[in-house]
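Minutes, project check-in
Item: structure for the 237-residue chain
Input as provided by the requester:
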Amino acid sequence: MAGIFQPVVDKIIALINSQIHDLFAKNGGKLSRIILVGGLGSSDYLFEKISMEFATVKVCKPDYPWSAVARGAVVHGVQGFVKTRILKRSYGLAHRTDFDEIAHKGRPFIMSPFNDAKYLDDYVKWIATRGMAVSDRDSIKIECCMNFPSSGSKKASIALYSSELNNPPDNDHDSKVFTNLVCDFTEVPDSDVMRSPVAGRTTKRASFTIEMYFGSAHLTYVMTHKDKKCGDVDVEY
């Protein structure tokens, strides 16, 4: 039986060697693995012979070699045609906004260490809403400021929220924190930092830009100060 298959196996090995040669000739690439697909790809005999011939390379057989080619073609085609996707959730972040004595009555607030103004302490700013159509080329920017102590750690974090509600509320009580964006202030020059003018307070403030990128299955948040990255986080949808 082996004699019947051997000529076919020899041709397959010769074809693999030819492809490897082309790979190295074009860009000096490194071969990491060989994947056997199709009907003959399920053959244990073929798997054994190729594993022996290319002993330094990992040889793999997918669970469903018969349909691997077709499924790969479908995935490739779908990726080519899908230009936009619809967000299933809204995404936002903890944000400070002016406290209105009437509209925000009963909600928590904090006093600014810079001018004693009142700011909402539970406010969530939604920057991408459920039902929005986005593509891999899209991004959303938001300008913000962060306070941090004059001494000690030079890192601070912003809570990132998500909600499956069609009209999520602007507070953090009914929203879910799915990750935190950590910002490192170490590289921010003192000339770009505002210090609290109130006697006895040592708080500093610096301005940042947060940009949200939409991948095929993940979101990426990048925080920059004058185009220099200070923090980033990548999360799945």
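Outcome recorded: The mean pLDDT is 79.
No further action items on this chain.
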